[in-house]
Write a structure and sequence with these properties.
The protein is of the alpha/beta class and about 200 residues long. The protein is about 20% helix and about 25% strand. It has a 7-stranded mixed sheet with strand order 2-5-8-13-16-18-19, with no helix packed on it. Strands 1-4-7-12-15 form a 5-stranded parallel sheet, covered by helices on one side. Strands 3-6-9-14-17 form a 5-stranded parallel sheet.
């Protein structure tokens, strides 16, 4: 393994135009194209492609094409999670998604960050910070989760929110930057913390 890939995997500053990382990107391009082309294939066929693309993928995971990522092998998705159209998961750093997560269309999970120093940024240095999404989270359409953020289980993030800091478990957060507006209490007969009334603020 080359130095830049080692540095990336360790969360250190690295140069992404390394030939080994370029080869990893080519692999991702091919597998994402294969997955997108299999939109009408059986769930079993699509799941087998995801097993080759991703680091780990649980049973009954559904991802609607198109789906985009940096490498794929740094993404772990728990069982029964659903990801809608147009997801962009930039996984230079680890992306960990729990079980029973609902992810709306055009959601972005972003791990890369760049240098504030102008010369080092021009030279191409970057690093990546992990993104973690807990069990039973709902991310509304167009949500952006920034590098280094963890979202606690059962939390709901409203459509279009930009999550720049960690969110605790069991809350409703909206806005840019996302802010907690209230705690969520489980209702009888429903999964913990997941509202089912389709509030438009959440999407």
């Amino acid at each position: 393994m080359g130095e830049n890939k080692q540095r990336m995997l360790a969360g250190d500053w690295y140069l992404p135009d390394d030939p080994e990382l370029v080869a990893d990107t080519r692999r991702r391009v091919e597998l994402c194209a294969e997955y997108d082309a299999a939109a009408t294939a059986t769930p079993d066929v699509r799941h087998k492609i995801l097993e080759r693309l991703l680091g780990s993928v649980g049973e009954a995971v559904g991802i609607r094409a198109p789906f985009r990522c940096d490498f794929g092998y740094r993404i772990a998705i728990g069982p029964r999670t659903f990801i809608n159209f147009g997801a962009v998961f930039l996984d230079a750093g680890p992306i960990r998604i729990g079980a029973d997560v609902q992810i709306g269309p055009n959601v972005q999970l972003l791990t890369p960050t760049h240098e504030l120093d102008t010369e080092r940024r021009r030279a191409g240095w970057e690093r990546a910070l992990p993104v973690t999404i807990g069990d039973n989270v709902w991310l509304g359409g167009g949500v952006i989760v920034c590098p280094g953020v963890t979202i606690g289980e059962n939390t709901v993030v409203g459509a279009g929110a930009v999550v720049t800091k960690d969110l605790p478990a069991g809350v409703l957060a909206v806005g840019n930057p996302a802010r907690v507006i209230r705690e969520l209490e489980p209702r009888s007969g429903e999964p913990d913390g997941r509202p089912a009334d389709g509030r438009p603020a959440v999407g």
